[in-house]
Amino acid sequence: MKSKKGTSKFQKFFAASVIPVGLVIAIIVFLKVMGNPANFMGNNPANGPLPGNFLGIIYKGGFIVPVLMTLLITVITFSIERFFTIRQAGGKGSAVTFVANLKKHLAENNIKAAMAECDRFQGSVGSVAKAALEKYALLENDTTMTKEQKILDIQKNLEEATSLELPSLEQNLNVIATISSLATLLGLLGTVLGMIRAFAAMANAGAPDSVALASGISEALINTAFGIGSAALAIISYAFYTAKIDKITFAIDEAGYSIAQTFAARH
Q1: Kind and range of the H or E element at 33?
Q2: Where are the alpha helices (DSSP H) in the chain?
Q3: Is 40 helix (H, G, I), strand (E, B) or coil?
Q4: Are 186 and 230 in contact (CB under 8 A)?
Q5: Which of 131, 153, 161 is closest to 267 using CA atoms?
């Protein structure tokens, strides 16, 4: 099988750089775009936002907003990256049709046609199936091993090929799963901090500071919205791609089982 070290190094570099780059982008957008003086009364970010100015309202969410923005950028980036990676791993066409064609060629004992089908389909399923077929062809004329040893060797080859494919499919999904919980907790933290500010304003002597009170409530609501939104997107993304990987894994298992069973029946 083709080595994936180069691709793996790039994926690790990409995964490690997404969060720092996302944080820098989030801080720049938070300070320069949302914190633009034109968004606030008196052209001063210390004042309240202009009526209906959504960017100014978000800015008043406080320092947790860029952190939540970073998590949102990370989820979106990894979701897009997983989309293309898993789409490529899924092969060209229907996995169900591929497995059916593979079984047909195996039933006809046409190993070359089965390999050609793997080359046509490509993807993780095609790569694993072709690796098993190559071992199948190699063991057909081997007289030094028993039938049981040959079947075990094919199954071992299938397991090794599968273990090389699956980690690349699942990469970065653990980050998305973590963000689904972390974003909610950070949103709640922002809510608590905002409410502390709001109640501190109400505790002032005399009439409560309406600006401080409004700013505290705004911070609480903005962080809650960002946290829930980011967590919801992360949960949907994780569930969607996990289901896609399960389908690929099932197709790999089905193809591998067919190859092993055909060898056991014919040799």
Answers
A1: none
A2: 5-28, 54-59, 64-89, 95-107, 111-121, 123-140, 147-170, 173-202, 210-266
A3: strand
A4: no
A5: 153
Cβ distance 222 to 92 under 8 Å? no
In the numeric block, which tokens belong to residue 220? Answer: 């609480």
Q: Which of 82, 63, 76 is nearest to 11 (CA)?
A: 82
Q: Could you tell me if 247 and 95 are in contact, meaning their C-beta atoms sit under 8 angstroms apart?
A: yes
Q: Which of these, 212, 200, 172, 206, lies nearest to 62 by C-alpha position?
A: 212
Q: Do 234 and 180 meet the contact criterion of CB atoms below 8 Å apart?
A: yes
Residue pair 218/59 in contact (Cβ under 8 Å)? The answer is no
Burial class (CB in 10 A: 0-12, 13-18, 19+), 234: buried
Residue 108, CA distances (Å) to 191, 195, 255 in order: 66, 72, 15
The model's pLDDT over 99-134, given as tens digits with 9 standing for 90+, comes to 888 888 888 888 888 889 889 998 888 888 888 888
Read off the tokens for 56.
Answer: 């100014």
Tokens for 219? Answer: 């911070």
**Domain boundaries of the chain, sorted by first residue:** 64-267
Whole-angstrom Cα Rg for the chain? 28
Asked if residue 237 lies in contact with residue 82, where contact means CB atoms within 8 angstroms, the answer is: yes
pLDDT digits (tens, 9 = 90+) for 229-248: 999 999 999 999 999 999 99
d(CA 218, CA 47): 13
What's the mean pLDDT in 52-68?
A: 87
Neighbours of 148 (CB within 10 A): 9
